[in-house]
């Protein structure tokens, strides 16, 4: 392998982030979340028998060496989109990172998935018992990092660690593989791994030899109160099993509960307390609805004693299924409803928005259907003490951070306020619109422009749209549909901006994301240009105020402003 080849995810992330910045995507890739996407993507290529193609694509992006004709370049563009899908599936659909296998249409079926914290010796015995096959691929994750494992033609274990500059390392045995991982990623206490094995679909009709161990065999000697920790945090057994990695299995919950019941005295009490923590911070926050359904049936009193924490964690994690479960199950419904007092309306609305799940926002608002409409509007417009934004502004900002096709919550909140006597001022609507422009959200810009048209007097409408003047630099970083929407509603673009619009019209078509943004193909963009951003949306507000002051009686031309938005949000750090 040439020494100049760099396959560590660091350079890949830098190059792709530069590309995404030029397309003004509302997030950035980080190493914490990227490792999972790359590992799943490699599994796809391994199961397709194209592992060499995976590294070929990786090398071209990381080392900026585009090669081949149209077919090769099209494959590279598709690879970039697959990286984006696996890292941030929410920009393509409502799915989350745990759905990466289905999003990428991996040609395999999951045959085993489990999480466990155990000693290194126990893990060596467990890994050996799995007997990973050549027609299988494994996702192997610590609490904070994800790798993939496969078996080579000469029966070696190949570990593909996204942090590895060479791309992969081969080991003679699973023991040697684990020795390498545990020495490279050191944790205090026992060691936590999430294991997921996917088998090629064409092999599913064949009997696997040897068969996989059962969950009873894997968890035979499990330490229910085991924990692992380092600077990233502490992870307990039940939290790890019930939450991380999207693990959600009723059979395993019942198996572990029976182990708890078999204990006596203080040991049982300690294990039950540990299970409570796992159900709240693991299952509730990570949307493990099957586990929580079983827990509600078997332990209703313990669930109800923790109902407030569970609801909060389900909201924080955007765990829509768990939130709905707690709201609808007869065992928890009454205590659930008690939480949503009118005094807490603003608090819960802001929590739901921060959790970024549109379904939860809708359900939280529905909890306040009987609240007087003016009181609800006041709760929506009440500013959060930390962010300084009202609920509508917070919802717009959350969309911009996570790239969700998420105008639904903003529309719901707007309508609730518009139905009340708490009228939105022209200045408020302008601020919302600037937020949507700044975070490059076409759907929201259209929604807000239509809201302005329907609800403001003519002079205020003109003041808003004539005050918005984008610089050429900002226009290049703004989706074409936003520029068109502003123009349709009265914004007069400069000749330079009109030139940018023409250039965007004639650009080769790329990929339309769920958030409404059309992004250029990676190969069309590569080596063409790189753009930065600066902040000065305040100038538009100044334009607007000056316009209103000078046009009380007779409208005059609005002052022009060279507007550039603030730097984009860097994206949340994922596990």
TrEMBL record:
Domain of life: Bacteria
Segments of this protein annotated with the region Disordered: 540-575
Protein name: Ankyrin repeat-containing protein
